[in-house]
Design goal:
- α5 links the parallel β5 and β6.
- With 215 residues, this protein is of the alpha/beta class.
- The C terminus is likely disordered.
- The chain has one domain: Vaccinia Virus protein VP39 (Rossmann fold, 3-Layer(aba) Sandwich).
Length: 215
């Protein structure tokens, strides 16, 4: 299936120097991205899939919509058949690097799925609210990022009954409480894998009510 590839809309990107630096870095390493990070990312995906299957947090719709924030080369698109009971799903990947997305496009064109790839970042997600059954954001957020704000923006895309899965890079010595607190009732699952915390949020509450730090 040929993926639609939406070129970068500069108005949709955060223009901060930090974002520009990240964009430049990933554009530069794009040819080596899978070699550098592919195996590591696949291990995370399989671990996350196991957690989702064990917890029963998989929305079952005939034609689910999957949004992959920070999709990289769209390795996840190829692996979703290990998680979903249907191959009739729509996959939308968004990443800040055009060079990375060119590789993702080539991968998706060899898959029998309906997909779009969009150049953008987590600060301005170009999708309508309430559309997604599952939102993934793997290895995008760091503890020092404004995670609360970024996740709320992502959650607005999630339909009731959907699920958002994210990981947050915290470092081995950082306690979960330092990032999120330990009393948040909206997290279905919070576990650590290596340097990252895996968070699973069920989208069954008003999106503005999600308190990510237990405050």
């Amino acid at each position: 299936m040929t993926a639609k590839f939406n070129q970068r809309d500069n108005s949709a990107l955060n223009s901060s120097s930090k974002v520009d630096n990240v964009m430049t870095w990933y554009d530069a390493i794009a040819p080596s991205y899978d070699e550098l990070y592919g195996d590591e990312q696949l291990r995370k995906y399989y671990h996350i899939f196991d957690v989702l299957l064990a917890s029963g947090n998989i929305p079952y719709r005939k034609h689910p919509v999957i949004i992959d924030v920070g999709c990289g080369t769209s390795l996840m698109a190829k692996e979703l058949n290990k998680l979903l009971t249907t191959r009739s799903y729509y996959y939308a990947g968004i990443d800040i690097s055009l060079n990375i997305l060119e590789i993702a496009k080539n991968r998706i064109n060899n898959l029998d799925i309906i997909a779009d790839l969009v150049a953008g970042d987590a600060n301005s997600l170009p999708f309508r609210e309430g559309i997604a059954d599952m939102i993934f954001s793997i290895s995008v957020f760091r503890c020092k990022d404004p995670v609360d704000e970024l996740v709320r923006k992502s959650l607005r895309l999630c339909r009731d009954g959907g699920v958002m899965v994210l990981t947050v890079v915290c470092g081995e010595g950082v306690k979960r409480k330092a990032c999120y607190g330990n009393s948040n009732p909206f997290y279905e699952t919070v576990i650590r894998t290596g340097r990252e915390l895996i968070q699973i949020i069920k989208c069954e509450q008003p999106k503005d009510s999600v308190n990510l730090r237990g405050e």
